[in-house]
Structures are given as C-alpha cells and as structure tokens.
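Hello again, I could really use a second opinion on something today. My current little project is about how a certain protein chain folds up. You're getting the sequence in one-letter code plus the fold written as tokens. Here's the protein in full, and shout if anything looks odd to you:
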Amino acid sequence: MDITIIGVGAIGGVLGAYLVRDGNAVTFCDIDEDHVNAINQNGLRIEGPDETFTVDGRAYTPAALVQRKPILETVFLCVKAQHTEMALRPFLPLINDKTQVVSFQNGLCENVIARLIGKEKTIGCFVNFSADYLEPGRILYGGTASLYLGELDGTISQRIRELEKTLQSWGPAEVTDNIWGYLWSKMSYAGLLYATALVDETMAAVVRKRDLRDTLMELCSEILEVADKEGVKPISFDDWVPALVYPRERDQEALDHQLEQLAERMASNKKTKSGIWRDLAVRKRKTEIDSQLVPILDLGARHRVSMPLTTQLVSMIKELEAGAIQMDWKNLYSLKEKYDCGENYVTKP
C-alpha cells in the first residue's frame, strides 16, 4: 500500500513514523517548509511515553508533490478541520477511481471530503490519541488510544480491512460499522475539551470540579441531542460514555464514577492539556471550532434544538482567539451561571 500523508503534524507525524519504521511506503506532505526540510535532512523524531525514535522520510510541500504528478493511491488527510478543502483541493487532479482518502481528523470532515471527491473514495476514521507538533521534525506523542476505520455507509469492506492490518504498525486500529457513532461521540467529547480550554488548567482538573459537572454534562448533552435528531447512536470510547450523559435522566453515581476514570486517564497522559488549549495559549492561532461546533449549532437550529451553552462556549472561544478575554475559571463559571439561570433541561419531544 502506497500512502501519502497530507499534514505531518501531531496525528500524521505519529502515524507516518510508525508506518515508515515498519517498512511501509510513505510520502510526507506538509505546508510548513521548515518541517519538510527538517524531515528530509534529519528525519522525523517521535517522543512518546514509552519510546523515542527517529525515522528517515521523504517529505514535500504540496506544490512540490503536485509537480511530481503521482497518482495517489491511499491518502491520510491529517490537517486541521478548517483546512480540509484547502489541503485536498490541489491534489484533485492526482486522484483517480482507485484512490481512497481517509480522514484522520477531528470533526465531521468526511462530509467535506465526500463532497469534493465522492463518498465512494472517502473513508471515515475516528482517532483519539493525543500528540503535539513541537518544532520542525519533532512530534510529542501522548500514547496509544482508540482508532476506528469505517465506510460511510456502514459496510465492512475489504479495503478497510487492509487499512486496519496496515495500521497495526502503529497500534490497535479497528474496523466499525458505525463510524458516525464514533465521530459524533467525539464531537460531544470535544464540547467538554473546548470547555477545559477556557481556563489555563489541565483537562483532568476541570473534569474533577464537581460543582461544574452538571453544566459540563448539559453542554455535552446539547451536542448529543443533535446527534439523536440526526439518527446517530454515539459509541463509547476511552472512558467517555455518552449513554451516561444523554438522555438527560442520568444515573449520577455511575456518571461520577466514569468521569473520575476519565480524569485519571487525562492526568496520566503525557499531554495533560488539550490541543485546543495549545492552539490558544502556545501557538496563538484559531482553533477548529468553526469547523467542529459551529456546524453542529447550525444542525441544532435546523432541528430546533436549544443549545444555549454551546452557543456561549463558541462565543467565548472566539473571544479567546481574538484576545478579548483571557483564560480564567470565571469563564467556566459564567457557563455555570447560564445553566443555573436557565429552564430545567429536559429532553425535548
């Protein structure tokens, strides 16, 4: 299998390095020329919780790769959600009927990819391991977590079985017949992660704040209600159990126990703060919220789902992006105030 990785950041860099180390044919492509040059000159270095290693790699900028005019066989698209179309469009002339593009992204990016190249060439992927781009040629890897591959129509095809086998070079990749269930579950979890980025603290510290839990779970429930209206059944992963959050008639004891397990997982990860926090606090750039939660607000409006907490969260993240407010616990407590002052939250008919 000939693999081209577009976006050699946190996810693409880790997957590509493990694939190369196992002898797979991998071409790296990234818009950052310094990163491309570093990979070509010194290799790609992965710093993980269990091992640190460096692999040699062939890396190109998009323009340089397009100039070579290769026909793309398997593409791992590993760019930020908001860059999906911009990253894929230059390669459209290199895609034929046998090309397959896999979305190793956060969000519902499969819809964008399918619109560009067709559903038959698009493969869904849920990926939850944590990693960070540190500097050119160097990636921090938080450790193994869930990765699921799935056809958009729920069938189990030979091609995703082959991808599953190939990705064992990295770790326990699996196939699912409900990829949308995983993707929507991740979106509800993303609501929680965006909330943790409102304060300059670890994810675990926020999840362990008992007085904020009702607010945070209602935030996630707003997203899960939209998934329900879309006819999607979310699936649990890595200590996130959406069925304990929505419907809203919750078993509080079971939910608290599960959230403590989630906090423990977060605390034990080498990456203790979210990529959202890193975008805001370290890289000083926009987050993926316009391509992740904003489309869900649009779907919610279409289904007439009330989403006051998600709406306020999006507003505050945008204020953080613009520098209008700073990370502070008061941001989370303003969400709590919105929740406390609102109507009793119940599942709408």
Observations:
- The chain has two domains: 2-177, 181-341.
